[in-house]
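Form 7-S
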Amino acid sequence: MGCGNSDRPSDPTLYSIDLFKEELVAVRKALDLQQIHLFGQSWGGCLALEHVLSQATGLFSLILANTPCNIQQFITQAYNLMNQLPAKVQEIIRKYEANGTTQDPEYKQAMEIFNHAFLCRLDPWPSCLTRAYSKVGTEFRGAGKIIDWNIEDRLSEISVPTLLLSGRYDEVTPACIETVHQGISGSQWVLFENSSHMPHLEETERFLKVLGDFLHDIESHQELGINS
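Output:
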């Protein structure tokens, strides 16, 4: 709900992490997905973490691409990245966010500079990304219901084989991913040196190989009855 071409209710009380968790459970039930590899990218990874921590069953593996576990850490790191931008761009972003006027064209132009550095470094952006971002807004302020979302102290509960994927220039910085990596015992982390937040688009061939090798390894162990 509220994503892509789905319905977009204007009542903010309808949106909650619990609702998105229920939607994921409903999809699994409707499609009879009893055993799955669970992949989540960015916010989708946060939802995937919530699903795992809800004691979900039938999970062969967990793949988290560009995913934080602590929104406040993500926001702090994002502002650190902003400090690498030209001073004028920083000034514009801070001004409009302080005034709550992030729909202003000048703010959006400033955010485009940030996005081309830390969201997707391809120029021009692929049409799939352009279409996706025509339906959303982007800003630094962690406004909304997930501003205090933090499951860092629960990561140790995750025992499913886990792969972490992220970009060197990712807005979800390596520091954020390091927190997840340290928290999930035995997790694997692959850092894409020529990518930001979209390594599946920026380094597609390597991304697919890394993902494919991981899935093949997990399924091979499952067939042999080995717990990895």
